[in-house]
Amino acid sequence: MTDSTPSADLSSDLALALRLADAADAQSLARFDSADLEIRTKADHSHVTDADLATERAIREILASERPDDGIFGEEFGADGSTERQWIIDPIDGTANFLRGVPLWGTMIALAVDGVPQVGVVSMPALGRRWWGSTGSGAWTATADGPRRLHTSDVSTLDDASVSFQSITQWADAGRLPQLLTLADRVWRDRAYGDIYAYMLLAEGRLEMVAEFGVKEYDIAAAVPIVREAGGRMTGFDGAETISDLSTLASNGTLHDAFLELLHD
Asked: How many Å apart are CA 263 and CA 76, to the nearest integer?
């Protein structure tokens, strides 16, 4: 995530990503809260539904037709093709919410160039919300009055910060529960908003930090251009500029180093 300079114009890639989100929404929303939803348990004990599979297939079919030379890395069907230009897909982020009828889930679509996410789209159709961003073109969300540009907050002290820690179990499993308690004691407000929605709240200036563990590239790639273009910063928990750290710490930018220092005391 260090180099955010686009190697070429990204407008056509962003336009395609938005069309991919349209196709994804058509698949996923039709199956949301469905009485006959098919649910299986994967080898890692997470759940997958027929909607996850159908949504990723729909995205892959369009990419195979329109970007046959690009690679794809999806949660459900793995990676194939080039890693120079690679589409990173989470067809339904928040499957646990999806299968319980909780509307906090969404599709994440990113284009990474040489490992750096340059285009990101997040669509949460059950909420009627969508966010997008690309390097050099800002971060945006759709509103009834048209696109609105996103900006992270200007909160500059931990005492005034609102944070999302995502899951107590994540932090405990990572051996970081003491740091979570320290964080909660230090900031103004702590909540577990969960999954991709928390990152979009950060990009909108409604939170100052999101951190989680046990994440894969497809869990966070689409958020990177959106948060970055909104003025925020995303690193691994140790501050590394990567999406392959299995952890992430996202902030409004201003407080990033303060959060890192606090969580590593």
From this structure: 33
Question: CB–CB of 130/139 below 8 Å?
Answer: no
Length of the chain: 265
Q: pLDDT at position 244, please? A: 86
Domain end among 92, 120, 144: 144
β-partners of residue 72 are 80, 87
Q: Are 122 and 130 in contact (CB under 8 A)?
A: yes
**pLDDT for the residue numbered 2:** 45
Give yes or no for a contact between 23 and 62, defined as CB atoms under 8 angstroms apart.
yes
In sequence order, the 6+-apart residues with CB closer than 8 A to the CB of 3 are: 114, 116
- Helix/strand/coil for 236: coil
Picking from 222, 254, 230, 17, the residue whose alpha carbon sits closest to that of residue 138 is 230
pTM: 0.94
φ and ψ of 88, to 5 deg: -115, 120
User: Cα torsion for 247, 249, 250, 254, to the nearest 10°?
Assistant: -160
Q: Has residue 241 been placed in a domain?
A: yes
Same domain, residue pair 166 and 49: no
Q: Range of 251's domain?
A: 158-263
**How high is the pLDDT of residue 245?**
86
**Low-confidence stretches of the chain (pLDDT beneath 70):** 1-8
CA-based nearest residue to 115, from 224, 21, 14: 224
Alpha carbons 218 and 225: distance in angstroms, whole number: 13
C-alpha distances out from residue 167 to 87, 190, 192, 219, Å: 27, 11, 6, 15
Residue 4 inside a domain? The answer is no
